[in-house]
Amino acid sequence: MAGFTESIRNIWKIEELRQRVLYTLGLLVVYRLGTYVTLPGVDAHILAEVNRQAGTNNLFGLIDLFVGGAFSQAGIFALGIMPYITASIIIQLMGAVVPYFQKLQREGEEGRRKITQLTRYLTVAITALQAVGYAINLRYGATGQAIVVSPAFFMLIAVIVLTAGTVFVMWLGERITENGIGNGISLIIMVSIIAFLPQAVYNEFTLKDNLFIVLLELAVFVVITAGVVLVTQGTRRIPVQYAKRVVGRRVYGGVTQYLPLRVNAAGVMPIIFAQSIMFVPATIATFFPGSDFMQQFGSFFSDISGWGYSSLFFLLVVFFTYFYTAIAVNPREMADTLKRQGGFIPGVRPGKQTSEFIDTILTRITLPGAIFLGIVAIIPAFAMRAGVTAGFAHFFGGTSLLIIVGVMLDTLQQIESHLLMRHYEGFMKGSRVRGRRF
């Protein structure tokens, strides 16, 4: 505990790090305040009473979790950052099959700038489409009595405000990433999720008569969290030998180092991608309130505790784990870098064989990581069947826990890097945090 306190004190000693942390916290506070601003034309008191009496649909409750309560409160940030995530998925998928986007990916910084611009435009289009569905559901659902203006005016103003709200949240995330600490988009999602945690734990204690059951649930929660941290930080070390080089009077190389490959190289993104995809069919179904087929189609993607939903979610997580790993880790580039630096893997020829060797190992270690992420992602469904309240079940595993753990570790590692660059001890002395040891 003394070491942790010392690390916190060291953060405030470094002016740049202190400013980045305060800047990040300030923008996150702005985002949280915005979730409580209700859409024009909606009576917040009537809406709160309707939600209290009617309860919340499972899917809508999950969406509400990712936007910090703005969805159920008809806030200006009701759609949150998820349209941006959806747009990013589409652009990355197109980068794998469309030659134009493949060309942009090879153009370096200029290509990335163009892809970012296209992602923003697509975010606006997706947000406007989802805003129409949200406004229709709000106007013609049980919450319709909370609308105090004409339907046409409400539809127009809701689409404009919701689209502007998502663009503003996207801007906040980009500013945090550029001038703050951590990944801004991920931090916004994590803060939205954590906002529900205190109330969920309190409800679990008050609604359960058996204290032993609650303590057992918390113990399982701790074990699952430890497992997620273990897999997130797990690496496969490949030995790399560097040849001796004489530069002037100094000798370089001749030592064995290690190339660390993460078991979960994709991080938290597969979960976010899969969840965004699962939101789309239910959103489309809201456009057809009178169609029985579309309502049944939407109900399949609304029942998060159903076997069909869980199975499809599991497969999507596994798929996106491999997909994002293929994007994030390039074995050919790693092999070329080793060759240029005079390094080689013992028993493997430099060049193509090294690339194939790294790719084979990466494929093997990604499989257990992908399966583990898929299992953890669907644990809330089993927790709800076992009697855990829906609010706490979302934190019991699944998307919420994976996002919180992944984002917290990534943010701590960035703070750790700032501390170590200035010869301060970080948060995780003696640990095997990636980036500190290697």
Descriptive overview:
With 438 residues, the chain is mainly alpha-helical. The chain has 2 domains: 1-195, Preprotein translocase SecY subunit (Orthogonal Bundle); 196-396, Orthogonal Bundle (Preprotein translocase SecY subunit). 69% of the residues lie in helices and 5% in strands. It contains 18 helices and 5 strands. It has helices at 2-13, 15-34, 44-54, 58-66, 82-97, 99-105, 109-140, 151-179, 184-194, 197-207, 211-233, 269-285, 292-300, 307-328, 331-340, 352-385, 390-393, 398-421; strands at 235-242, 245-247, 250-252, 256-262, 343-344. The strands form 2 sheets. It has a 3-stranded antiparallel beta sheet, sandwiched between helices. The protein has a two-stranded antiparallel ribbon with strand order 2-3. A hairpin with a 2-residue loop joins strand 2 (245-247) and strand 3. Helix 5 (82-97) crosses helix 12, helix 6 crosses helix 7 and helix 8 packs across helix 9 (184-194). The chain is globular and about 80 Å long. The model is unreliable at 430-438 (pLDDT under 50). Keywords: Cell inner membrane, Cell membrane, Membrane, Protein transport, Translocation, Transmembrane, Transmembrane helix, Transport. One of its GO terms (biological process) is protein targeting. It comes from Rhodothermus marinus (strain ATCC 43812 / DSM 4252 / R-10) (Rhodothermus obamensis). InterPro entries: SecY, SecY/SEC61-alpha, SecY_CS, SecY_dom_sf.
